[in-house]
Structure formats: C-alpha cells, structure tokens
Amino acid sequence: MSSAPKTIRERITGHIRDELVAGRFAPGSTLRETELASRFGVSRGPIRDAFLQLSQEGFLAYQANRGVTVRHPPDPDDREFITSVRKQMETHVLKKGLAKISDESIKIIESKLANLKDACDAGDVAAVARSDMAFHESIMVGCGGEDLVPAWRQLCSRMLLTYTRLGGYDQAHAEHATIFAAIQSRQIAAASAALVANIK
User: Fold this and answer.
1) CA end-to-end span of the chain
2) Are 121 and 80 a contacting pair, CB within 8 Å?
3) Closest among 141, 139, 89 to 110, alpha carbons compared
4) CATH 1.10.10.10 domain range(s) in the chain
5) pLDDT tens track for 26-47
6) Of 120, 95, 111, 119, the residue nearest 182 (C-alpha)
7) Is 71 buried (19+), middle (13-18) or exposed (0-12) by CB count in 10 A?
C-alpha cells in the first residue's frame, strides 16, 4: 500500500532536516522565515510549522532576540552519554520484544535495510542518516517499543547533528545487515551486540 502524499509542511520540514543533517547550516546560525519561504516558494506558515517541529525534535532552538538558531552538536562528553543511553534503550527494547516479533515487522525492517543500501550506494549523507534512523526505528516499533520512540528520537536528533560516515558507507550498510541477520533469526545476544557495535 502506498503512503499518503506528504503535506507542504512535511515536505518543507524534511528538506530543512536533511540540510541540517548534511551540515549545510552552520551551528549557531540564524534561520529566517522570510528567506526560506522565498527559497521554497511557500508562505511563512509552513516554514514556521517546520521550525516548531524541528525545535521539538532537537535540531533547532529559539533564542531571545535571535529567533530560531541551529543547535550546536553535543560536546564529546555529552555525546558519549547520549550514545550510551541510546544503546541501552535500543537493546532494552530488543531484549524484551525480539522473541515475539512478527514476520510482518521483519519484512518492514528488511525494507528499511534496502533503503539504506540505496542511500549508501548514492553516497547521499542526508539520505543515509534518514535511512539509518528509519531502520533502527523499525526495530524499536517491531519489538514493541513504540512508547519509547519519542524519547529515542530526541537522542537521535542530537547525534545526527554530527552524523558522518564519510568514506564508510559500505561499512555502515554491512553493520546494519549484520543486525538484520541476527534479528531475522531471533538471536537476541547477537542482535544486541551488533546494535551496540553500530551505534557510535
């Protein structure tokens, strides 16, 4: 079944998110509604909505007298902590739900892996990051962790501000393929180890 067409807000939010992940906006820089509205050929409303969504996701921040600015990536200590929490969250959900995962969920995870392969082959950092997160989210949902997804997305958004697999797209896909193989065969220990090794 095909997905519903995206709204203007969803399209604009996706474009801006991709550019943030690809590093096309400098950390701390100010984003202006009028400039982006003109660039995308839309009114300021969808831009304002996109700013709100991306602020909630952790990519942007409202600052007094400065408007909307691009968040700075976490410092090394904070990133290490965020990475540790994300590993704990994903492995917790996996261990609780992998034994009961449905065949349909396995197929969804496999489709996300295929999307990641396409993005890696294209060398598109924004598409790789987006597909990477979609793969992990499909595991969270497939293993029954829907309630933890909003908090998990906040962690991921902070990590995505420094997302880079430059020169390592083949390795990125191989790591995710290893995760999928273990999940497909319901090997909890192997899947957990592969997840921990992949999340950096």
Assistant:
1) 34
2) no
3) 139
4) 8-70
5) 889 999 999 999 999 999 999 9
6) 95
7) middle
CATH fold, domain 76-198, is: Four Helix Bundle (Hemerythrin (Met), subunit A) (1.20.120)
Residue 162 is which amino acid?
T
Q: Are 13 and 54 in contact (CB under 8 A)?
A: yes
**CA distance readout (Å), 73 to 149, 150, 156, 199:** 21, 19, 12, 17
* Contact indicator for 70, 26 with CB cutoff of 8 Å: yes
Q: What is the pLDDT of residues 95-135, one digit of tens each?
A: 999 999 999 999 999 999 999 999 999 988 888 988 999 99
Domain with CATH 1.20.120.530 in the chain: 76-198
- Edge-to-edge, what's the strand order for the sheet holding 67-70? 30-31, 67-70, 60-63
CA torsion angle for 193, 131, 169, 82 (degrees, to 10)?
-50
CATH architecture of 8-70: Orthogonal Bundle (1.10)
Predicted model pTM:
0.85
Q: How far apart are CA 96 and CA 75, in angstroms?
A: 32
Task: Give the bridge partners for 31, in sequence order.
Answer: 68
State residue 82 phi and psi, 5-degree precision: -60, -45
List all residues 6 or more positions away from 177 whose beta carbon is below 8 Å from its beta carbon. Answer: 113
Q: Which residue has the tokens 């409202």?
A: 62
